[in-house]
Amino acid sequence: MHILIADDDPVSRRLLEVALVRMGHTVVVVSEGLAAIDALVATDGPRIAILDWMMPGADGLAVCRAVRQRAAPYVYVILLTARHSQADMVAALDAEADEFLTKPFDAIELRGRLHAGERILKLQEGLLRAHEALQHQASHDHLTGLWNRRMVLQQLDRELQRNARDRSELAVILADVDHFKLINDTYGHATGDSVLQQVAGRLRSVVRDHEYLARYGGEEFLILLPGCTPDGAVSVAERSRASIAADPMLAGGEPVSVRISLGVASTAESGVDPAALIAAADAALYQAKAGGRNQVSYRALATTA
User: Fold this and answer.
1) Torsion sign (Cα): 172, 178, 182, 184
2) In this structure, what is the dihedral angle of CA atoms 282, 286, 292, 294, given to the nearest 10 degrees?
3) Which CATH number does 2-138 carry?
4) For residues 25 and 2, is the Cβ–Cβ distance under 8 A?
5) DSSP 3-state assignment of 240?
6) What CATH number belongs to 149-298?
7) How far apart are CA 228 and CA 234, in angstroms?
8) What share of residues in the chain are helix, strand, coil (percent, to 5)?
9) How far is CA 149 from its chain centroid?
10) Which of 51, 217, 269, 280 is most buried by its number of CB atoms within 10 A?
11) Burial of 177 (0-12, 13-18, 19+ CB in 10 A)
12) How far is CA 282 from CA 13, 140, 204, 231, in A?
């Protein structure tokens, strides 16, 4: 474990350092509170801190408060103190210290305090991983790993608000896998799922970092293109179409020919309703389907005078 010692007493500091190194820990040593804060709020800072209560720059309580406000992930703080009054203990708890270690410290007690801190940090890491997994599940499509419909519609709302503020352009592309039901009926649903995953991968290779790609539902995909002109959006749609048609997809060891149709809509107007923009892209997609599929169609968003 990576541990910080902050103590202005060189003898106490050295004794702690030797004890921690013997226990197998790596140690960062500072002699005043401001240096402790800088070390603990760093991205790769120590996760356990042993702080002297009284030291220059900032005392142990001030360091603890600063760390609680600024450090992430959690730092387990042990206060090193000779204070025992009830008022002192309350002050330390109010500053959100986790543990106390009496001066001069006892090595067995120190080991126990550190074990408790390590257990709490492991529990917190597990909770954070579970939280991140739940957030990912709530915002991403489980099959393709792309954003889901809810998230991309939220992003569309944000982009349209920016569009209104900055008078910038915004384009959307609605893509649909041609004859997807036939693929499912011919090869089975497992192959259909594999096709959707491969379509997602090829579309992802076309979309740039500042653009957004989502599985909109079923075999439909939605691409948001902030700051993109109609011609630029049609070009992205055509590259997307070509990336799918270029080579057959392999599913279950055999090649499957896949094509997509795409509808493009864009706006430079403020106050555009998200549903209206998507409806325009959907109408363009219908036009591409009616025109023979495996093609791109553009439809200007209708505006009121």
Assistant:
1) negative
2) 10
3) 3.40.50.2300
4) yes
5) helix
6) 3.30.70.270
7) 10
8) 50, 20, 30
9) 17
10) 51
11) buried
12) 69, 22, 21, 18
Pairwise CA distance, residues 90 & 79, whole Å: 13
Q: CA–CA separation, 300 vs 305, rounded Å? A: 15
- Parts of the chain belonging to CATH 3.40.50.2300: 2-138
End-to-end CA distance of the chain: 67
| Residues carrying CATH 3.30.70.270, the chain | 149-298
- Summarize pLDDT for 116-148 with one digit per residue, the tens: 888 888 888 888 788 778 887 888 999 999 999
Query: What positions carry a catalytic annotation?
Result: 219
**Alpha helices by DSSP H, 167-229:** 180-187, 189-206
pLDDT tens by residue, 236-249: 999 999 999 999 99
User: Please, where are the H alpha helices in the chain?
Assistant: 10-22, 33-41, 60-70, 86-94, 107-139, 149-166, 180-187, 189-206, 230-245, 274-290
Residues in the chain: 305
Q: Which residues pair with 30 in a beta bridge?
A: 6
227, 170 Cβ separation under 8 angstroms: yes
Mean pLDDT within 69-95:
79
